[in-house]
Amino acid sequence: MQEHEKFIKEAIRLAKENVPSGKGGPFGALVVRNGEIIGRGVNHVIANNDPTAHAEVMAIRDACKNIGHYQLQNCIIYSSCEPCPMCLGAIYWTRPKMLVFAAENTDAAKAGFDDSYIYKQINLSFDQRDLPTVNIKPDSFFLPFQTWIDWEKKQPY
Amino acid sequence: MQEHEKFIKEAIRLAKENVPSGKGGPFGALVVRNGEIIGRGVNHVIANNDPTAHAEVMAIRDACKNIGHYQLQNCIIYSSCEPCPMCLGAIYWTRPKMLVFAAENTDAAKAGFDDSYIYKQINLSFDQRDLPTVNIKPDSFFLPFQTWIDWEKKQPY
C-alpha cells in the first residue's frame, strides 16, 4: 500500500504541474511494472488538439512505445483521477493487472469535469442515445472481416 | 441516405485494405464535414504498438489535426463497425452531430473481435469489475483540481 501511495502521489504531482503548462486539464497518470515507472502521461488535449490525449491514454501510449508492445500485462496503471469511459476502455484493451486512482468522478465534477453523462450514454443501446446513430449495412459490410478471417498471415491482437 | 452509403462504403473499403497491410485489424473510419472527408483512420494497433490506435480514434486524431481543433462539431463519423467503448467515449468527447456504422458488434465477434465484455465491465462499479481497482486518496488528491479552479488563464475544454 505504501508503494501504491508513492506512485499515486507522483501521478497527482504530474496532474498539478500540468495546469500552468496550459497543455490540458489537471490530470496525470503512470504505468508501473515491477516497481518501475515505464510510462508517464498528462492531459494534452489543448496542446495537441487531440481529444483522445487524456492522461491515461498518454501514459499507455508512452509505456507501449517504451516496451515495444501494445499490451501492458503485469503492469499497474496509476491515475490522479477515476478514468473516463474512453480511458477505461483503453485500460481494458491493454490488460494491466491493476488500476489505482485518487480523485473520484464526483471530485472531478466539482472542477467542471463530468464524465457521468458519457458513462450513462454508453450504457444505452445506440437507438436510445442522444448522439444520432444510424446503422447502414451495404452488401460489403462483412468483407473486411472475411478478408481478416481468410488472411493467413494475421497476427491476432 | 445515399451520401451516408457512399461514405460508409469508403470506410469499409479502408477497413478491407488495411488487412493485408499488416498494420492492424479490419477496421476503417472517416470524419466528414459538409460532405467533405476531413479525417481518415484505420486500425494501427500492431504497426504503432498503440492499443488506442483504433480506426475511429485515428480518424478523430487526423481530423482534429487537419482542422486545428479538439472538437468535431457539425461532423459525421463513419465507421466500418460499431465502435468499442473506448472509441465511443472518444466520439462523445469530440461532440459530432452523428455516427454512422456498418457491421454490428455481433458481426465483429464472428471474426474474433468481441467488445461486449468491455461494455459489460464499464457498466459496473469499480469494486465489481474483474480489473482489480483501488481508490487511494492522499491529502493532495484535490490539489490538481484546486489549482485548475484557481488558475485564471485556464481554457475550459
Task: Sum up the structure in keywords.
four-stranded mixed beta sheet; alpha+beta; 5 strands; 157 residues; homodimer; globular
Structural description of this entry:
- The structure is a homodimer of 157-residue chains.
- With 157 residues, chain A is of the alpha+beta class.
- Chain A has 7 helices and 5 strands; from the N terminus they run H-E-E-H-H-E-H-E-H-H-E-H.
- In chain A, strands 2-1-3-4 form a 4-stranded mixed sheet.
- In chain A, strand 1 and strand 2 form a beta hairpin.
- Chain A is globular and about 55 Å long.
- The two termini of chain A are 33 Å apart.
- The mean pLDDT of chain A is 96.
- At the A-B interface, helix 1, helix 2, helix 3, helix 4 and strand 4 of A face helix 1, helix 2, helix 3, helix 4 and strand 4 of B.
- Strand 5 of chain A pairs parallel with strand 4 of chain B, so a sheet runs across the interface.
Sequence of strands across the biggest β-sheet of chain A:
2-1-3-4
Structural class of chain A: alpha+beta
Instruction: State the helicity of chain A in percent bands.
Output: 40-55%
Radius of gyration of chain A: 18 Å
Which protein chains are joined by the largest interface, and how many residues does each one contribute? Answer: A-B, 95 and 95 residues
Runs of chain A with pLDDT <50, length 5+? none
- Count of individual beta strands of chain A: 5
User: What integer is the average pLDDT of chain A?
Assistant: 96
Assembly type of the shown chains?
A: homodimer
Total DSSP helices of chain A: 7
**How much beta of chain A, percentage-wise?**
15-25%
- What is the string of helix and strand elements of chain A? HEEHHEHEHHEH
